[in-house]
Specification:
The protein has about 300 residues and is of the alpha+beta class. The protein has one domain (about 40-260): Muramoyl-pentapeptide Carboxypeptidase, domain 2. About 40% of the residues are buried. The strands form four sheets. The protein has a four-stranded mixed sheet, covered by helices on one side. A hairpin with a 2-residue loop joins strand 1 and strand 2. It has helices spanning about 1-10, 25-30, 75-90, 140-145, 165-175, 185-195, 250, 290-295, and strands at about 40-45, 45-50, 55, 60, 60-65, 75, 100, 125, 180-185, 205-210, 215-220. The chain has eight helices and eleven strands. The chain binds zinc ion (ZN).
Length: about 300
């Protein structure tokens, strides 16, 4: 009898310990990387990162911004990429290098604010503000803002756009480690309009997405041998099949996206870094690959 009463109580009143904590909170609370070998686990918008490294807050050609968010952690391949691109940026006169925004949390995973992706240490936001100084203080890195590269009506680039910005994007897109780069649609439209026939190969990697007016977002491929990392299918067929993405799905962003026609069954293009209207998706640990539990529990 006592047993039955206890059982009934257990069914009726869930103990607080049984309430599952959101993975967003668990990963958000980790302040240093896992002591494991580097391994991206899962997918860009549903995963975590083992053995991530901290991008040094300041380097010879970069500064990490918004340090209070603690999102300057990355897979070693991303650390290498950011160092290389920032030194190329400085060499091509893009200010003194790069201001680098969010990468990932120390152990990756879903976040409590901001992004759908950036979960494996293979996504990084790069500011459109070319650095004039690389000695910003912590508080300056919180208060300084980047600049808009896209007009307020979302249809064209601003006066901030120019050959140097284009060269920076091309350098990033031409890097074999890069899978795709998310940019405001207006930027891709401008490049589609002006690129010569012989200079279009890299356009396939540029993907239009909502937001992204003051930064671009670089996504790396799964590194070699990263067996727990899910490769993402290309959104656009490669150039040999005629796919540079300068097509109707791009035009959609400055037409129907801005002035939605009456609902039809036509599917709209989707990218998984589009900001969510209701804030970030909430994950439980059961929503993530099972190895993410070890990433969280590791020393
Ligand atoms: Zn991003």
């Amino acid at each position: 009898m006592i047993f039955r009463v206890a059982l009934c109580l257990a069914l009726l009143v869930p103990a607080p310990a049984m309430a599952e904590k959101l993975a967003n909170k668990l990963f958000g609370a980790m302040d240093y990387p896992s002591g494991q070998a580097a391994m991206p686990v899962g997918s860009y918008a549903r995963g975590c990162g083992a053995g991530l490294m901290e991008l040094k807050e300041s380097g010879p050609t970069w500064q990490a911004m918004r340090l209070s968010r603690n999102r300057n952690f990355a897979h070693p391949e991303m650390i290498g990429f950011l160092k290389d691109l920032s030194s190329q940026a400085a060499a091509m006169g893009w200010g003194k290098g790069l201001y680098i925004g969010d990468i990932s949390q120390p152990r990756g995973g879903p976040m409590t604010s901001g992004h759908a992706s950036h979960q494996m240490g293979l996504d990084a936001d790069i500011w459109w503000l070319a650095p004039t100084r690389l000695n910003l203080s912590r508080s300056e890195r919180e208060s300084l803002s980047s600049i808009p590269m896209r007009s307020a009506d979302q249809k064209s680039v601003t006066g901030n756009w120019g050959p140097k910005a284009r060269a920076l994007l091309k350098a990033a897109a031409s890097d074999p480690r890069v899978d795709r780069i998310f940019v405001a649609a207006a930027i891709k439209l401008e490049i589609c309009k002006t690129a010569k026939k012989a200079d279009r190969k890299w356009l396939q990697k540029l993907r239009p997405v909502a937001g992204h007016d003051t930064h671009f977002h670089v996504r790396l491929k799964c590194p070699k041998g990263a067996r727990l990392c899910e490769t993402q299918k290309p959104t656009v067929a490669d150039l040999s099949k005629g796919g540079d993405g300068c097509d109707d799905t791009l035009a959609w962003w400055v037409t129907d996206y801005l002035n939605p026609p009456k609902p039809t069954k036509k599917k709209k293009p989707k990218e998984d870094d589009a900001p969510r209207k209701k804030g970030p998706r909430e994950f439980t640990m059961a929503d993530l690959p099972k190895q993410c539990k070890d990433v969280l529990a590791s020393d």
